[in-house]
Amino acid sequence: MATTAPAQQGPASARSDHAQTGGPGVPQSRLLATEIPGPRSRALQERKAAAVPRGVGITLPVFTDVAGGGILVDVDGNRLIDLGSGIAVTGVGNGEPTVVRAVTAQIERFTHTCFTITGYDGYVEVAEALNRLTPGDHEKRTALFNSGAEAVENAVKVARVATGRDTVVVFDHAYHGRTNLTMAMTAKSMPYKHGFGPFAPSVHRAPLSYPFRDGLSGPDAAAAAIHQIEKQVGADQVAALVIEPIQGEGGFVVPAPGFLPALAAWASANGIVFVADEIQTGFARTGRMFACEDEGVVPDIITTAKGIAGGMPLSAVTGRAELMDAVHVGGLGGTYGGNPVACAAALAAIELFEHGGLVERAAAIGTLLTDRLSRIRDANPCIGDVRGRGAMIAIEIVDPSTGAPDAATTGRIAAGAHAQGVILLTCGTDSNVIRFLPPLVIDDALLHDAMDVLDSVVTAL
Ligand SMILES: *Cc1c(COP(=O)(O)O)cnc(C)c1O
To answer: Over the chain, what is the mean pLDDT?
Structure first.
């Protein structure tokens, strides 16, 4: 299979003085061996352009050799600080040894049966673990799927059958995925929806509590949202209210205290299924096992994915037994949903989330990042807001004279950090938010180094 492109052979010379394998053995320090992207990444980028549609974009066009801890080593031997975790996925770390062992052992037993043809223990064990770990001590059931969007779709299916109603209420700035129904539920047009319609009907968007912009208390913002839903839809038409407890792609918006509890109480009083989309916030990320716990909110259904399985594709819908069991036999499933290898990875990852100190570690990461970012903000008025919880922190970039969102400056900050070997992601409806989502196993020295880079990039603007 050899071709003339050197990158296909593996970056042997770059590797010789760097990590050979991923996982915790990867040296935990930033290193710029070439410009970023380096020549091998640029060669792969050219092949990508000829082989992959441009619609599949790349934030930082370096190609990965190995990764572990808080470091991603690219094919040119550069060691980049990973503040993205592949969008909040590798919370337990890339190549985490217990996950690798569990996956390897499962692959040697069998790789697939389709759980809806013949069952296997791993699926049931993941369901039992999620039923136990998710908020609330009521009886629960869990169904497994492949992606976050698929989990959201299935949560809506369950809510519609259980209530006999059809409308789904979502919120401003929401992100729920890229399938047809979840595009309808997602707020931002470009790039997620633009040109891809028509979209699924019976989706209603309500205003979200956004303290930095609306200045409303949580209860006041909830009252405004409820009033709008009651007038424009009618509570008795609503099957489900779907909300991210802290928004992900929409800008890491943390609703004001009281907003989520008021909505949950209203949903409960009106027979509406309250669905917490914890696909990004789940599994220790926010310094709690699930973000809803911060205000004691107990969702009727919770959707999870991303961090659940140490990088293997898996998602879940966990809900009240009477809701989940409302669906007829055979109504939920899919060829790969709850794949045994992904389940083995999830069980190893969940063990670490529960007993590996990762909830506490996420909280400590939040304290470090918030402290460093607040000091950078105090010296740089373009940073309008520092927000988030645990290892899910963001800064919102504004024009200091008008307070208007400043996407151009945001892009310059991200590009400056990328050039210095720090993987930073942006987000937000106005593309003016920089988000920090490090693996929970990253060490403090790397976080400080990344904050020093950010400080110098922002100060140099
Ligand atoms: C990423 C995300 C999704 C979609 O997950 P995919 O696995 O990309 O389909 C849905 N909801 C939230 C909150 C997310 O962050």
So the answer is: 95
The range of the structural domain enclosing residue 434 comes to 8-95+358-460
Residue 1 is assigned to a structural domain of this protein? no
Residue type, 298: V
167 vs 272: CA distance, rounded Å: 10
pLDDT score of 253 more than 70: yes
Q: What is the pLDDT of residue 248?
A: 97
Q: Which atom of ligand 1 is nearest to the CA of 248?
A: 15
Q: Ligand 1, residues 56, 175, 279, 336: which to mutate, most atoms within 8 A of Cβ?
A: 279
Cβ-based burial of 179 (10 A; exposed 0-12, middle 13-18, buried ≥19): middle
b vs e for 109-148, b when ≥16 Cβ sit within 10 Å of the residue's Cβ?
eeeeeebeeeebebbeebbebbbebbbbeeebbbbbbbbb
Question: Cα(65)–Cα(16) distance, rounded to whole angstroms?
Answer: 12
pTM beyond 0.85: yes
CA–CA gap between residue 71 and residue 231 (Å, rounded):
51
Q: Of 349, 341, 337, whose CA–CA distance to 144 is shortest?
A: 337
Count of structural domains within the chain: 2
Which residue ranges have their beta carbon within 6 Å of ligand 1?
147-149, 152, 175-177, 244, 248, 277, 279-280, 305
Strands 167-171 and 238-243: parallel
Same structural domain, 103 and 187? yes
Of the residues 304, 321, 355, the one at which a domain ends: 355
- Gap between the Cα atoms of 33 and 39, Å rounded: 11
Q: Report how far residue 22's alpha carbon sits from residue 94's, in angstroms, rounded to the nearest whole number.
A: 7
Closest CA to 170 of 204, 221, 209, 220: 204
Cα torsion 288, 292, 293, 295 to 10°: value is: 120
